[in-house]
Specification:
The complex is a heterodimer of chains A (about 350) and B (about 375). By secondary structure, chain A is an alpha/beta fold. Chain A has one domain (about 35-340): 4-Layer Sandwich (Purple Acid Phosphatase, chain A, domain 2), CATH 3.60.21. Chain A has helices at about 5-20, 25-30, 60-70, 95-105, 115-120, 125-130, 155-160, 165-175, 190-200, 230-235, and strands at about 40-45, 50-55, 55, 80-85, 110-115, 135-140, 145-150, 205-210, 240-245, 255, 260-265, 305-310, 315-320, 330-335, 340. In chain A, a hairpin with a 2-residue loop joins strand 6 and strand 7. The two termini of chain A are about 15 Å apart. Chain B has about 375 residues and is mostly helical. Chain B folds into three domains: about 50-185, Orthogonal Bundle (Cytochrome Bc1 Complex, Chain D, domain 2); about 190-245 and about 300-375, Cytochrome Bc1 Complex, Chain D, domain 2; about 245-295, no CATH class. Chain B is built from 16 helices and two strands. A two-stranded antiparallel ribbon of chain B has the order 1-2. Chain B starts with a helix and ends in a 13-residue tail after the last helix. Classes of the chains: A alpha/beta (about 350), B mainly alpha (about 375).
C-alpha cells in the first residue's frame, strides 16, 4: 500500500501542467521563441473502428477515439490542426471508415489524414480516398514543411494477384506473424514524387513526415517496417531538421537516425507489446521478451492514448497523454542530438518496468 | 544445509509474526484486526497511542471549530450514519451547502489520497481543510481553532500528555495528527461477506447474496474498480474514473469551465474552495487537482464497506438508493439508456444487460458488506 507523498502529488501536477492545458503565454516563456514560429498540433492514431453488424461497433475502440477527440478539444492553446495517423478502420469497410470519421468530425479545426493498411487493403484505398482525398500530399505551415506518405503499399504483384475478394487480401495484411505477409513500402513512384516535392524546399526548412508504418526497420513480422526505408531516409538526409511521425506500432517509440528524429504514436484502440528487436541491450536468453509497462487487463485504456506535438525552432516535442498514468514528454535534446524522454531517463534515472505476475 | 536454511526461515517468520502482533497492539485500542482487511498503515511520524486516539476523538466531535459553533467533523461524518451525513451534499455552517457528498471515514485509513478528487495525500492534510472552507466550517483561518484549544484546560493537558507541548506551542500539525490517529481506528471489516469469503463460513451470506457476489465479480464487472483480493477487500482501487456522474451538469461546458478554473487557479484561487463552491468546477473532478486533461470528470472509487448506511450515493449525492446505483451502471453510466454519454467517460463503463434478479442480487450482496459493530469507535 504505497501512499502518494505530498511532493509526488505536487510534482505530478507540475509535470502535467507543463504537458497539457497550457495557457499560450507559458509556452512562449518556456521556450523563449518567437511566438510566430511556435505552434502545436495534435496527433491521434490507430482507432481500428470495428463493425460487428449494422449499427453495432466494438464499444471499446469507439470509446478510445471518442475520448481522444473530447480531450483534444480541451487543449489550450488549441492545436493549429490535428493529424490522424491511419487505421481508422479495422477491415477498411465503408461503414467503419464513416463511423470513425463521424466521431472525428467532433474535432475543432482541420484534420489531416494518413492512410493505414487497415484502411487500404479491402479496396486498395478507394473508399478512403473518396472520403478524404489523396493519400500522399504536402503543405507548409508557419515555416515547417509537412509531408504525408502512404507507406503501407507493397509489391504490385501481390496486391493485384487474383483474390476471391478484397476482404481476403485485407485479412492477409491484417495478420501479425503471417508467413504469407508482405512488407510495407513507399514504392518507386511515391519516392519520385517525394524527391520532386523536396526539391523546392530549402535545406534549413524543418521537415515533418507522417507515415503509417515506421520509415525505419524495427520488426518485420509485425510490419514495424518499411522495406524502402533507407531510400526514403536518403531523400530526407540533406535537410537540417527532420522528424518522422508514424502510427501502426501502438506504443511509444523514439529513435534518431542521422538527422532524422522518429516518434511513434500510441493507438486509441489497444497497445502492442514491444517487439524483441526493439530491445536496448543484447541478451543471451533463448527467448527474450522486452517488458513494457504492461497493459492492465482491468483497465481498458491502459497504454493507449494520443499525443500532441509542440513545434518550436523546427523540432518536435511529443507529449503522450496516457489515461490514469503519468503523461510523458519525449523532446529533442540539442546537446544530445536526439530526442530524450524528459521524465523517464536512461541509466540511473530510469523507471524499472512494472511486473504484474 | 537445507535444515539450517529452514530454521533461519522459521525464525524470520516468527520475528515477522512478533512484529505484526506488536503493530496490531499499537494501532487499535480494542480488538484484533478485522477479517478482510490488511494491517492499517501508520505513518512513521504519527504513531498510534490510546491517548492520542482519545484526543482525536474529542477534536473530531468539537463543534467549536466552525464559524457558527455548530459544525464538527462528526456533523458530516456521523457514526450512526456510517460516518456520513445521509445528505446529497453536505451542509456547513449557517446551513450552507457545498457541491459534494460526504465520503465515509470508515477505512479512510487505507485511502492513498483523500477527498473525492484526491487533492490531499493523507488524513493529516485532509482534516485541516473543512474548518476553513467558506461552505463548511466557515472560519477565516486556523487561528480560532488554536485559540479554543489553548484556552481549554482539558485540551491543554491532553496535548501536553500526547505531544509534550505547552499550550502556546500547539499547532494545527498536532491537531490534525490527533484527528488522523482517531480516524485510523475507524475500521470496518468482519462483515458477512468477510466471514463468507475469508472466514470460510459458508452460511454467513444468503444464497441471494452469494449469487450477487458472482454478479459483482463477473457480469457486473464491479470488481474491476471495487477490488476484492485474495486476503483482503478494500472495495476501492484508489484510482479516479469518469463514470458519467455529473455529465448533466457539465456536459458541453467542459472547455469553458476548465479554462476559467485554470485562469483563476493561476491567480491564486484555492482549489478546495473552488471545487466546493462552484457546481461546474466541482464536476472537473481530478482534473482540478492535476490539470491533466485525461482526468476530466474523474472521481475516486469509493469503498463499498457499510454502503447500505451511507446513502445517497456518488460524489454529488445524485443517486438515492443502491437500486438507483445499480440501474445507473446497468444503463452504461446514465439514468436512462437513451441519455447522452460524456466523451470523457471511462470505456470500462458500459451497459451491463443485468436481469431484474441479478440487479436485486447485486443490491443484496452490497448489504452483506456492512460491519456488525459500528458503535465501537466512539461513545459520543
Amino acid at each position: 500500500m504505497s501512499k502518494i507523498s505530498r511532493r509526488e502529488l505536487l510534482s505530478n501536477g507540475g509535470a502535467l501542467l507543463a504537458a497539457s492545458s497550457l495557457p499560450i503565454s507559458l509556452v512562449e516563456v518556456a521556450f523563449g521563441q518567437d511566438s510566430d514560429s511556435n505552434f502545436t498540433f495534435a496527433y491521434i492514431s490507430d482507432s481500428h473502428i470495428t463493425q460487428i453488424k449494422g449499427n453495432e461497433f466494438v464499444r471499446n475502440w469507439d470509446r478510445g477515439l471518442i475520448r481522444a477527440v473530447a480531450e483534444t478539444n480541451l487543449l489550450d492553446p488549441s492545436p493549429d490542426f490535428v493529424f490522424y495517423g491511419g487505421d481508422i478502420a479495422q477491415l477498411g469497410k465503408p461503414e467503419e471508415i464513416d463511423h470513425g470519421l463521424e466521431i472525428l468530425s467532433g474535432l475543432h479545426g482541420d484534420v489531416h489524414y494518413v492512410m493505414g493498411e487497415h484502411d487500404y487493403y479491402v479496396d486498395l484505398g478507394e473508399y478512403w480516398r473518396k472520403q478524404l482525398g489523396p493519400d500522399h500530399y504536402s503543405f507548409d505551415h508557419k515555416g515547417v514543411h509537412f509531408v504525408v506518405l502512404n507507406s503501407i503499399l507493397t509489391h504490385e504483384a501481390w496486391m493485384h494477384q487474383k483474390w476471391d475478394t478484397g476482404m481476403d487480401r485485407m485479412k492477409q495484411m491484417a495478420r501479425l506473424d503471417n508467413p504469407n505477409g508482405q512488407p510495407f513500402m513507399v514504392g518507386d513512384s511515391q519516392r519520385e514524387w517525394l524527391r520532386k516535392d523536396l526539391d523546392k524546399i530549402s535545406k534549413d526548412t524543418p521537415i515533418v513526415v507522417l507515415s503509417h508504418s515506421p520509415l525505419q526497420k524495427i520488426f518485420k513480422s509485425w510490419n514495424f517496417w518499411t522495406d524502402d526505408a533507407e531510400q526514403v531516409q536518403a531523400l530526407l538526409h540533406p535537410f537540417d531538421k527532420v522528424t518522422v511521425l508514424y502510427g501502426h506500432v501502438h506504443q511509444i517509440q523514439t529513435n534518431q537516425i542521422g538527422n532524422i528524429s522518429f516518434h511513434a504514436a500510441m493507438a486509441t484502440a489497444w497497445p502492442w507489446p514491444y517487439p524483441s528487436t526493439y530491445r536496448q541491450k543484447s541478451s543471451y536468453m533463448p527467448k527474450l521478451t522486452v517488458e513494457m509497462n504492461r497493459a492492465d487487463p482491468f483497465f481498458e485504456r491502459d497504454a493507449t492514448g494520443w499525443q500532441f506535438i509542440d513545434m518550436h525552432s523546427g523540432r518536435t516535442d511529443v507529449s503522450y497523454l496516457l489515461p490514469d498514468n503519468q503523461n510523458r514528454v519525449v523532446a529533442y535534446d540539442e546537446s544530445a542530438g536526439h530526442p530524450v524522454d524528459r521524465t523517464n531517463k536512461a541509466g540511473a534515472g530510469s523507471k524499472p518496468p512494472l511486473r504484474h505476475y | 544445509m537445507w535444515h539450517k536454511l529452514l530454521k533461519g526461515a522459521a525464525a524470520m517468520k516468527f520475528r515477522n509474526l512478533l512484529a505484526a502482533v506488536l503493530v496490531t497492539a499499537a494501532w487499535v485500542s480494542a480488538g484484533a484486526q478485522p477479517l478482510g482487511l490488511p494491517p492499517v498503515p501508520i505513518p512513521a511520524d504519527n504513531p498510534q497511542t490510546p491517548e492520542k486516539i482519545a484526543l482525536g476523538d474529542r477534536l473530531f466531535h468539537d463543534t467549536r471549530f466552525s464559524a457558527d459553533g455548530k459544525v464538527s467533523c462528526a456533523t458530516c461524518h456521523e457514526q450512526s450514519k456510517g460516518f456520513t451525513d445521509n445528505l446529497p451534499v453536505s451542509e456547513g455552517f449557517n446551513s450552507l451547502t457545498g457541491t459534494r457528498n460526504a465520503p465515509t471515514v470508515l477505512n479512510s485509513a487505507y485511502f492513498t489520497t483523500l477527498f473525492w478528487d484526491g487533492r490531499e495525500p493523507d488524513l493529516e492534510g485532509q482534516s485541516k481543510q473543512p474548518p476553513i472552507n467558506p461552505v463548511e466550517g466557515g472560519l477565516p483561518n486556523h487561528a480560532p481553532i488554536l485559540a479554543v484549544i489553548r484556552s481549554d484546560s482539558e485540551y491543554v493537558t491532553s496535548f501536553d500528555a500526547v505531544f509534550d507541548v505547552a499550550a502556546t506551542a500547539i499547532t494545527m500539525e498536532h491537531v490534525s495528527k490527533a484527528i488522523a490517529s482517531f480516524e485510523r481506528t475507524v475500521i470496518a471489516g468482519d462483515s458477512p461477506f468477510d466471514r463468507y469469503y475469508y472466514g470460510g463460513e459458508s452460511d454467513a451470506m444468503t444464497a441471494e447474496q452469494i449469487r450477487g457476489l458472482d454478479v459483482f465479480i463477473n457480469k457486473g464487472r464491479c470488481v474491476s474498480c471495487h477490488t476484492i483480493e485474495q486476503t483482503q477487500a478494500l472495495f476501492t482501487d484508489n484510482r479516479f474514473h469518469n463514470i458519467g456522474v455529473g455529465f448533466k451538469q457539465i456536459g458541453g461546458k467542459e472547455y469553458e469551465t476548465a479554462e476559467q478554473f485554470i485562469k483563476s487557479k493561476r491567480q491564486g484561487v484555492d482549489v478546495d474552495i473552488a471545487v466546493l463552491t462552484s457546481k461546474n468546477v466541482s464536476e472537473l473532478g481530478r482534473f482540478a487537482v492535476t490539470e491533466n486533461i485525461t482526468e476530466v470528470g474523474a472521481f475516486k472509487t469509493s469503498t463499498l464497506r457499510n454502503i447500505d448506511q451511507t446513502e445517497p450515493y456518488m460524489h454529488d449525492g445524485s443517486l438515492a438508493t443502491l437500486e438507483d446505483v445499480v440501474d445507473f451502471y446497468n444503463n452504461g453510466g446514465r439514468d436512462k439508456d437513451t441519455d447522452p454519454l460524456s466523451g470523457f467517460q471511462s470505456g470500462g463503463i458500459r451497459p451491463l444487460n443485468l436481469t431484474d434478479d441479478e440487479k436485486e442480487e447485486l443490491v443484496a450482496f452490497m448489504q452483506a458488506l456492512t460491519s456488525p459493530d459500528l458503535e465501537q469507535f466512539t461513545d459520543r
